[in-house]
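Ticket reopened. Same input as before:
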Amino acid sequence: MSLQHSYFRSKAIRDPLYGFIDLSELETKVIDTEIFRRLQFIKQLSHAYVVYPSAIHTRFEHSLGTNFVSNIMANELGFTKQDDIERIRLSCLLHDVGHGPFSHLFEAIIEKINPTIEEPHEKISKIMIDEDPELDSILSSKKSEIIELLQKDKISYKDTSKLLQSDIISSGIDADKLDYLRRDSYHIGVAYGQFDFSRILHTLTTTPKCSQICISNKGKDALENYRLARYLMHVQVYTHHARLAADKMFLKALEIAIFDEKIIDESLLKFNPEKDNTEFLKFYSSLDDCSIYNKIIHDEKAKSSKLILNNIKKRKLLKRACEFTPKDLENAADVNGKFMKMKSDDFNKVALGISDSLNLEPHEVIFFKSTIKNKLFKKGEILFRVGDDVFDFDTFSPISGRDVEKFLIYGPADKEIRAKIASEISNLFGVDLSKIAPIQ
Amino acid sequence: MGLDVFDAIALTIHANNDEIISKTTVQKLIYFHTVTIPNLDISNYTHHFYGPFNREVSTALEDMSEFSYIDQNIISGYYETYNYKLTENGIKYAETAQQKYPDEFNIITKTLQICKEYCELKPTPLSYAAKAHYILANSSDKLQDKYSAEDVKTIAKDFDWNISEDDALTGLKLLQNLDLVSTT
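Engineering reply: fixed in the latest deploy. New output:
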């Protein structure tokens, strides 16, 4: 047994995908910190459990899985130094540590409260790794290298080894996606996220200068399988209409709780990457999926927010009134691109206008654009190598995948009300009612 | 507020009789616009294996096609090439943007004319020029005012880009025509 092998085998944790996940003594200490254990109470798939009841696995086991996959990738890509492998493993272990309750939903709130901060999720991860005293005492000097790997754009183009290490954490073929597609698929009982995992790992290689991950020619079919799996998981699971309804209802409840009912103090969610964030960290790290529900539901001031959350709990979800695609707007003669450029505030305004005109509660109409960014089918996302030549995978693939965009409008269960909502939308957007297909 | 990515794309295609062939050509032309138009409001180009790349441009091209401002057709060949043509709505969109940003449209038209005269908007020479410019702007090896095609070729290796001295020269000459470099 090599020294490196024993170093990373201080503790073994059972995992349904990999059998056992081995951790070093240091990694074991990291996963036992309060802010890491918090991930056990943040579901990986947010409200997908309203459709798939067993979608209740958490960011915690995904983080462990990513750590495991990263080790295999590091070996396949030729990293042999223990320091390099440890840095990659720790970065993968900590890549999701900045997630808030219901992950990306809470991110939307954080963005709203901190509008001048770009990529707040990444900044929060950095703050947590950098400023949490418990993590600081464990990681000490290693933490700056971890933060560097998690922020690829900060790595010098000359540091090819770090760029390649960073690709293991975030790229077209990274440990994150290689874990979560199969893990989500396993936990919810669908086959869409399955792909030839071993073949991909076995055919990993690099660009000639060893700065980016590539796949060798023999892995190209496995790669098609992998990117198709990602697309199908998005269609079937991540953007399932009922899950989106629950997610958007939760977001609405959260906005009301913070901005209208003042149940959660907005100032506690403000942070500044350049200053001390002790108070922010203390509050943010106390939040998880369950605590945020309880905080709102059990507050005396809660009215609409409480009603919405209780409706989600009882699965009394808003239902689709209609949906349409950008192509349906073809004849709308929108010469300013107003529909194409709509942002979340614009959608909210339309929804409020409709709820007002139909005498509904403001939270009873939800309008948004759902987008599946098929980024693995885009130029430059995945490279493959034949001999010394590197090609863009998408150039050779017979399969192309454009983004999928859909406008969705939800309303109360009452079919007549939803028909009226569809009619309002038809007037506002200048599309035929028959085209936007009211959904009964 | 200045031009956004949609305006820049629409005006670029509009400046070429409402039609441009190749995704790479659009990417690289917008790259030059980011250098020549101060109030162009789009994110920075980042390093990519094939040269400077901007995801916002790529996504906006798809959006404009989805929303029927652009007809996007694939020209078959060994490699797929895209042909982008403004639709009737796209032309109206571009004309509205042109009225709003007349000075910027003039700069875009000038850039298009120079590139057209130099290489008929072929993606490969445009790509060499964009790479050379990106190298000169981002290299930590400061070259001051004096640099040669050989310098560019050498530094390109640091970026994992394999370009010959002739390729570098092709790119630098176009940059010179565009007034984006002072000496070679």
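Residues 3 and 40 of chain B are 5 Å apart (CA to CA). Chain B has eight helices and three strands. Please confirm and we'll close it.
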